Structure formats: structure tokens, C-alpha cells
Amino acid sequence: MLNVSGHRLGTMEIESALVSKTDLVAEAAVVGRPDDLTGEAVCAFVVLKRSRPTGEEAKQIANELRNWVAKEIGPIAKPKDIRFGDNLPKTRSGKIMRRLLRSIAKGEAITQDTSTLENPAILDQLAEKL
Asked: Please, what are the averages of pLDDT over each run of 10 residues along the chain (130 residues)?
């Protein structure tokens, strides 16, 4: 659960809204990060059904996804940060490692155990900001 400006939002609701954009999004994970203005900000990690966008194209797709979430759930649920990757950090059994995503969203260095991570290179890719 996230507490954004006094509103309680479920991460699964936002993830479902992102993935419901079936023509564009293959997979999504949402975590919260501290924010001075709203208390907690929504940070989304998205895998597209096409190659990972960069530069201006990435900003345009991120805005499209923000507007989609606002339409599906409401403006309060719009992700503040959207980061694109070729895939999400998962264990070999397929579970998304959300604790690593939270560290990336906060801008912290990854100091946790990553020995069960399927593809460690994905962490550097997701750490890149738009």
C-alpha cells in the first residue's frame, strides 16, 4: 500500500492499470518512494512489448502511461517516475524483487543480497532516469 497525499493506493491497482494498456505494456511493477510534497510518490518500472525507448520518445511514452493511469484510476495515482527496462529484476523462480526496485526508486546503492537475481545487469538499466 502507498499513502499518496493522504490517499491509500494499492500497488497492484496501479500495476493492473498499466498492464491494461495492452498495445504497449508487457509487464509493470510499482513501488513507493519518499516524497517531500506528497509523503510517498508512485514509481513505476515498465517493460514494453517493443524495444526500450530512450530520450524524447521515452518521455512521450511515460506521459501517455501517466495519462492512462489517471483515466483508469484517477489523477492521484499517476506515477511520478516511470522507468523502462528490457525486463524486471526477478529471482530464478520468477518473483519480482521489489526490495531492489524500492532501493532504485530511492536512489540508493544496492547493498542487499542479489545472489538469487536472474539478470544482475538489469539493475543498472533500471537505475537510469528519463
From this structure: 87 95 95 92 95 93 96 94 94 92 92 86 85
